[in-house]
Amino acid sequence: MGKIISCKAYDIYINEADALNTMIQKLNPSRIFVLVDENTGQHCLHHLIANLDQPFTTITIPAGESFKNIDTCKQVWTALIETKADRKSLLINLGGGVIGDLGGFCAATYMRGITFIQMPTTLLSQVDASVGGKLGVDFDGYKNMVGLFSEPAAVIINTEFLKTLPYKELLSGYAELLKHGLIADEGIWEQLSSIDDITGLDFEQVVYDSVKIKKEVTEQDPTEKGLRKILNFGHTIGHAIETLSFKTDQPLLHGEAIAIGMIMESYLAKEKGFISDDAYEYIKSSIINLYGHKYKSVPKVDDIIAIMLLDKKNAQGKIMFSLLEEIGKANFNQEVDYELIEKARENYMN
To answer: For the whole model, what pTM was predicted?
Structure first.
């Protein structure tokens, strides 16, 4: 028995076996296209072949964040044009965050918009990237610099796909679960932060709990003018560290960078008087227990700030953070001076 989360614009199906065929019958598309990368083509596409009642055309792109760019979009648009996709076509994005972000962006812009369904296959994409209508690609080395907001026809989650993931990828997605607990539900944080080995979790339940938090936040603020910014906790510094790591021989997974970002931004919250020293130490020790010091040589603060100055949450040239008020509650539009960011870096390093 699966779970369904109803949103204003679409529904999110978790382990609902007939959801995809039911949606396709409802949409009645002229053509069906399935976007995969090399990994999901190998490990997940067979599930669609076995369960989808309708014929479809597969579009395959290279795997990895480095291909989340306009050049790859051109490949997808070209494939749609060459196979004569029209405005009643349906694009199913079967993959992780790159497939969901890029595929949704391609669908929302092809012929000014065709219908798409998100079928996330990683923990990260199931609890974060596939929900909320944010779409986009990286540009000139900057994450998610080009994009838009557009809702899918449905999000269809199958937690069985998580069995195909290496533990490192599973742990990367787990960072977003922890984040949702820290910003919105202390009980979820308490539960998830106390676990040493995440492989034994009831993923249907924890994905449901986490998606429900994100859904409730994004429905109140679909285009990130206010409350939705709390979902960026850990991401202002985390995105900068992730971007800079791509230029090294030790690139970080998204969740690894966000784990560092959550520690450093919790330090900012402590220094600004929002959370206690004990709360900060609890957050820091819990995250390090799961992730270790993944990136001991954190980039110089000037390099971090140079990336953060392009953050979409900024206002009038000032770097704006989303910070914890307490465990289970966050606020947004918090200005932090550069010296405090340097102190957060030094604290993490030590």
So the answer is: 0.92
- My answer on whether 118 and 45 are in the same domain is yes
37 with 145, same domain: the answer is yes
Of 297, 290, 305, give the one whose Cα is nearest residue 337: 305
Whether residue 252 contacts residue 243, with contact meaning beta carbons closer than 8 Å, is answered with no
User: What range does the domain containing 230 cover?
Assistant: 172-349
What's the Cα-to-Cα distance from 96 to each of 39, 49, 90, 190, 199, rounded to whole Å? 10, 18, 18, 27, 19
Largest CA distance in the chain: 60
Mean pLDDT score, 208-237 = 95
Task: State yes or no: pLDDT of 77 exceeds 90.
Answer: yes
Return the axis-axis angle of helices 338-349 and 301-308, rounded to nearest 10°.
130
Mean pLDDT, the chain, integer: 94
Cα(85)–Cα(175) distance, rounded to whole angstroms? 37
164-168: average pLDDT: 93
pLDDT, position 143: 84
Q: Which residues are catalytic?
A: 112, 134, 176, 214, 224, 228, 232, 235, 239, 254
274 and 335 in one domain? Answer: yes
On whether both 205 and 306 belong to a single domain, the answer is: yes
**pLDDT above 80: residue 126:** yes
pLDDT > 70? residue 297: no
Please name every residue paired with 31 in a beta bridge, in sequence order, or none if there are none. none
Compute the half-sphere exposure of residue 76: CA atoms within 13 Å on the CB side of its CA. 32
